[in-house]
Amino acid sequence: MCRHGDRTPTSLYPNDPNSPSDFPEGLGHITHKGKNDQYNLGKYLRTKYEDFLTYDSNEMRARSSGRERCLESIQTNLYGLYPPRDAKVWNSEVDWQPVPIQTMPVDLDGMLYEDAICPADDEELERIRESPEGAEVMSNNANLMRTLEQLSGKKMTDWVSVRDLLDTLTIEHDVLIAAFTSAFGVFNQLAVPSSTAVITELHEDADGNFYIQMLFKNDTTRKPYRLEIPGCEGFRCNLKTFKAIAKPYVVEDWRQECGLEPLPGGTNLFP
User: Fold this and answer.
1) What is the Cα–Cα distance from 197 to 33, expressed in whole angstroms?
2) For residues 87, 88, 94 and 100, what is the CA-based torsion angle, rounded to 10 degrees?
3) DSSP summary character for residue 222
4) Around 211, how many Cα atoms within 13 Å sit in the side-chain half-sphere?
5) pTM of the entire structure?
6) Taking all residues of the chain, what is their mean pLDDT, rounded to a whole number?
7) Of the chain's two ends, which shows fewer C-beta atoms within 10 Å, N or C?
8) How far is the C-alpha of 208 from the C-alpha of 59, rounded, in Å?
9) pLDDT digits (tens, 9 = 90+) for 155-177
10) What is the CA 161 to chain-centroid distance, rounded?
11) Given pLDDT bands bounded at 50, 70 and 90, which one contains residue 108?
């Protein structure tokens, strides 16, 4: 699981000194640095798993959100991960091979897109906004909200407006990786850098027991950190224990939980 590469702002605020023409890639697309980071991440994965990972297309599946920056990222990542070699070279002038990428429209993607259509989620967000706790957050940060409005020229109606402005000024906090690591008690409470990867490895010991090792790579130029999952023995997590920790967070039918009608054929790409 990895985050897309560095991107340009998704939008500009009214008092923004920049203009869309300052971003030749277009708003919301990955930059040259983002492409290079993803390429280097792919090369790292190829080097790390060289003796394990073959070029058999049946051994891997690439799944991406339908967001263009995510599709751009996974393409450059796979370019580093699967350079054509031997029988895979299809053109001597091209050091690249096509690798299938599975995706779906973002509004229907309850797996990888946090803003997919979900009435139940919208209702919960509105409940929080109208709650005493939500009102307290707004009251405690009234001066900050006024300052942000004056500087940006953007109306700050609630903390969601602040989040949208933050997305423009910096890089959005990646919800997917934050949620995944939080579920296993290893989220560091920091914004997730672009091109961050969470690697989940399945191992088998000499006695035939399976265990999980989780790695966190938040810098494409450095080795990943090993994550120690609470409730597991050190950096090794028995597979049964791992599944038990994950079970409360597994959604069997996200459309049903969101209050949506099922779609013909379902919406899961992976069985």
Assistant:
1) 16
2) 170
3) S
4) 15
5) 0.88
6) 89
7) C
8) 22
9) 887 766 776 766 665 544 478 89
10) 21
11) confident
